[in-house]
Automatic annotation (TrEMBL):
Descriptive protein name: SSU ribosomal protein S30P /sigma 54 modulation protein
Coiled-coil stretches noted in the UniProt entry, renumbered to this chain: none
InterPro entries reported in the protein's UniProt record: RHF-like, RHF/RaiA
One Pfam family from the record: Ribosomal_S30AE
Keyword entries, A-Z: Ribonucleoprotein, Ribosomal protein
GO cellular component terms attached to this protein's record: ribosome
């Protein structure tokens, strides 16, 4: 499932091959933008990549998030099992990068 959305002037591009992104995960992506906006007002785009590999006990899930800002973009990735928890983690990692670049 891939989808694009415009939220508060920020273009959201979500790529999740072979996975459906639930409404609660989409709401968390929007909440991530709200949280990131507190640290920079210049967000142009947010790209989120969901990836699941393997099956059963060897399955791994990964989220990557790229925040498009003037200058170099910031990117963070997280592996785990809970999509919403991983989204919060990559959001916090990107915030730390934005703060460091100030």
């Amino acid at each position: 499932m891939n989808y694009t959305e415009n939220y508060k002037g920020v273009k959201i591009d979500v790529q999740s091959p072979n996975l459906d992104v639930s409404e609660s995960v989409q709401a968390e992506i929007r909440a991530s933008i709200d949280k990131l906006s507190r640290f920079t007002s210049n967000i142009n785009a947010l790209d989120v990549y969901f990836k699941a590999e393997g099956q059963g006990g060897t399955a791994t899930t990964t989220i990557g998030m790229r925040v498009g800002v003037p200058g170099p973009d910031v990117f963070a990735e997280e592996k785990g099992e809970n999509w919403i928890g991983m989204l919060k983690s990559v959001t916090d990692k990107n915030i730390r990068q934005l703060q460091k670049d100030k």
